[in-house]
């Protein structure tokens, strides 16, 4: 029992790992997650609009994108983007893995968020569109000004839940071999585990992730209650 406790709860190692986790890992985790969320939201809005098209050939590319990247394990997408693209000569971010990390998580986030947006937009009463068009608005203008904002407002809790997922999935980008100064929480914890042969640094990293995800989770629940009460 003592050996088990020392392996996971060596407080000297936990406290010793915290400064590096907070100074470098936390900032890089937030940077990767924030970049992925912005990219994923932009992709998701475009994909959701395509999914709502009346023409099958417009819907098809978006449907393939959503089904493929929701169906693939995250680790495969991270490796395909972060290792496969540079190996194929496609290097929009040069040799730095940081940009590929954001791209990989953003692509995955976009696929999930697209379905969230689509369901939110479809939940808006069709009468809203008819009323806007009766006032002389075009279809695209009515979608942009009337329907889409209402749809997004209805799915804010689900979107925030996806953002929590993006933060957790950012831990997989350690596979890309981030450079010094770019390492996120899990990468730093893994280095300390390899150095000390003790799993306590993983507990330290887990606590840092909880510092991010628990407040966001409670914010999601609070937002959901607020929106339900407003309806």
UniProtKB/TrEMBL annotation:
Which keywords does this chain's UniProt record carry?
Answer: Amino-acid transport, Cell membrane, Membrane, Transmembrane, Transmembrane helix, Transport
Q: InterPro entries annotated for this entry? A: AA_ABC_transptr_permease_3TM, ArtM/GltK/GlnP/TcyL/YhdX-like, MetI-like, MetI-like_sf
Report the transmembrane regions from the record. 30-52, 64-85, 97-114, 202-221
Q: Does the keyword Nucleotidyltransferase apply?
A: no
Tell me the ranges covered by the ABC transmembrane type-1 domain, including all copies.
26-220
Q: How does it sit in the membrane?
A: Multi-pass membrane protein
Q: Where in the cell is it found?
A: Cell membrane
Family, according to the entry, reads as follows: Belongs to the binding-protein-dependent transport system permease family. HisMQ subfamily.
Q: What is this protein called?
A: Polar amino acid transport system permease protein
């Amino acid at each position: 029992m003592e050996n088990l406790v020392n392996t996971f709860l060596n407080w000297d190692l936990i406290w010793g790992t915290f400064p590096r986790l907070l100074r470098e890992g936390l900032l890089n985790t937030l940077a990767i997650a924030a970049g992925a969320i912005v990219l994923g939201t932009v992709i998701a809005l475009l994909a959701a609009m395509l999914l709502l098209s009346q023409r099958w050939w417009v819907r098809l590319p978006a449907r393939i994108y959503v089904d493929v990247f929701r169906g693939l394990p995250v680790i495969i997408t991270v490796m395909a983007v972060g290792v496969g693209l540079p190996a194929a000569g496609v290097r929009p971010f040069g040799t730095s893995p940081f940009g590929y990390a954001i791209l990989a998580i953003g692509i995955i986030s976009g696929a999930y968020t697209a379905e969230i947006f689509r369901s939110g937009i479809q939940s808006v009463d069709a009468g809203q569109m008819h009323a806007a068009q009766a006032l002389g608005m075009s279809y695209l203008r009515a979608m942009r000004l009337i329907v889409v904002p209402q749809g997004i407002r209805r799915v804010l809790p689900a979107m925030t839940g996806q953002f929590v997922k993006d933060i957790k999935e950012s831990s997989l980008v350690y596979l890309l071999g981030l450079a010094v100064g770019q390492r996120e929480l899990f990468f730093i914890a893994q280095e300390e585990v390899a150095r000390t042969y003790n799993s306590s640094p993983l507990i330290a990293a887990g606590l840092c992730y909880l510092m991010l995800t628990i407040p966001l989770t409670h914010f999601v629940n609070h937002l959901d209650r607020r929106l339900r009460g407003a309806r």
